[in-house]
Description:
- By secondary structure, this protein is an alpha/beta fold.
- The chain is about 55% helix and about 10% strand.
- About 35% of the residues are buried.
Amino acid sequence: MWFLDSSAILKLIVDERESKILRRFIPTLNITSRLSRIEVLRNVHRIDPKKVAMAKAKLDGIYYVELNQGVLQNAEDIAIALGTKSLDSIQAGSALFIKDSIAGVISYDKNLNRALTQLGIHSISPGV
Length: 128
């Protein structure tokens, strides 16, 4: 199982250069932070409001790491130690919370990928 950040999920909904390769690579079982649902829906609405229903359907097929105390504590520690922005800290904190249950993180966010590397979490960006 892979953890998908919002940048990866967005590429599954809105066609971008890496979308085709990502769709071929991605397994059927994936997980993300609950934060991703908000980020993806906001961005899909901004890019193409007609795709919001499709985005909700795609998001309904993904498992979620809830924003619990452990995730938020991880995010606080990551933000302080690595100087990451709040949303990246929450994504990284979510991935760290389930680190032993995932193969790694699929993300196209360079700052998040840098933080994940520092945390010892494998991250990839298929097609980049």
